[in-house]
Please model this.
Amino acid sequence: MNYKNQISDRVKILLIDEDESIFYLIRRVLQRENYRLYTSTSGRSGMEMSTSICPDLILMDTQLSDMDGIGLIQWFREWTDCPILVVSGQTGYMDKVNALYAGADDYIVKPFEMKELMARINAVLRRSEIPDDTKKKLVFDKLEINLDSYELLVDGKRVDTVEYR
Model:
């Protein structure tokens, strides 16, 4: 079984793109590959959606009518380190450089081949995956604190709220 098949059914991808033809093509291919796909046709709704789903990958265009795509990349970088793959019609080298400096992990120019897009998606996911044995956990008898996910477990059960006395 290859890497893609091992992870695709549990990877959450947020797709933010206004270009309907590209949007539906990418959506169809990612769904066929069993990725958990969340879609947005605007930057603002993509921002809102990202905070609730905590995606494993953000696939986005920088040409958005409701906001600056470079600013959106910077906003994402303020709170998440998940990979960002830009898919854009902007072909100038400074467009690419600005996106990469803002925090994008990769940049692909429209039009593109779907095989190349899938290869880039798999590459950034492969680079970003943290092996289970390197996750930061503190374990004290029946208490476990996961420093990566900020979860507290007592006797193996997640604690959602804490009362202070």
Remarks:
- The helical segments are 3-7, 20-32, 43-53, 69-79, 93-102, 114-128.
- Residues 1-6 have pLDDT under 50 and may be disordered.
- The longest helix spans residues 114-128.
